[in-house]
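Reopening: structure tokens for the XIL complex, inputs below.
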Amino acid sequence: MAGSLLGLAACGGSRQIATTNSKGLKDQFRNAFLIGTALDSLQVAAPEKETESLIGLQFNAITAENGMKAEHIHPQWGRFDFNWSDRFIDYGQTREMYIVGHTLIWHSQLPDFVRSIQSPDSLQQFIQQHINTIVSRYAGKVDSWDVVNEALNEDGSYRQSIFFEKLGAAYITDAFKLAAAAAPDAALYYNDYNIEQPRKRAGALRLIEEARKEGARIDGVGIQGHWHSGKVPFEAIEQSIREFAAAGLKVAITELDLNLLPAPPKLSGAEISQRFAADPALNPYPTGLPEAQQQQLAADYERLFRLFVKYRQQITRISFWGVNDRQSWLNNWPVPGRTNYPLLFDRENQPKPAYFKVRAIEVN
Ligand code: XIL
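Re-run output (same inputs, fresh job):
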């Protein structure tokens, strides 16, 4: 829905009342950047009513949290399942939202058939068919694609994914070229976690420079933004925005959430294959968030959004990874069954102190 993010007047029911009576984050930051959320599969397939009105009030961009990942959308060689993704696109279009496709080439959440591919040629064929089919189906509808996700190690070297092992870094160039050919108007992003950290940031800049040299179009960088409250790397984030912008890249914060729970000792970054056993010591707030942590979260979010507003010329979009604390993936990753509080809205969709801090920031 590029360029058409205005009214939601066509939507009926409670949302219409909510939008006319009050303004949400999307209105507050309208002159700065888009405000997005990830939508999990159920929120599109069987919408919860209250969550639905909150989404309509607060957000003007949506990302598919899981439903467009290869294991769901391309379960078998040559067989695609667009059942959910069509509904997701329809959801965004009906509400005139900016639609983010997440993600085309990623080493996680791959269908089994891809993991068992042996020859480089077949893998190359998979990449071609995958990108051509999905991106052209949604050309003119998906506004921005996370074309390649998490291709780097923490030291900035290339991750030894199945793609890199069989095809070398050329798979990245190819992926961006294929996406550009299938959807010339979509914004194309490289997305990663910890990419604000100096070594990984330098690796991303190298990766992008190399791909561009080979003729790929890369419009922007997605900084995932899975950070820890109390340990948000503000300086590294600011420096990254400057360096990416200097390289002619737009910046989006693509998966923002601030984890409040203790990290298992060996956790590093947001690699989703890392899992740890449930342990009460790792779940200290099962019945509610203490005031000190609530205030820390609010202070972190406020400082982050002040920084984002400072760089509004460079930043296209801030997307949260989920609507409310109840739905957040951080309740189950990297430790199952925890009670986490990483977003601006609580388990009942009520705004938290962090929301009001962000809401008070002036954007002129
Ligand atoms: C996560 C989803 O939120 C979970 O529901 C799923 O079980 C695993 O993946 N980086 C990404 C996202 O790019 O796709 C991941 O999403 C979180 C880390």
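The first strand starts at residue 34 and ends at 39. Residues 65-66, 149, 193, 224, 255, 270, 272, 329 surround XIL (CB under 6 Å). Marking as resolved unless the reporter disagrees.
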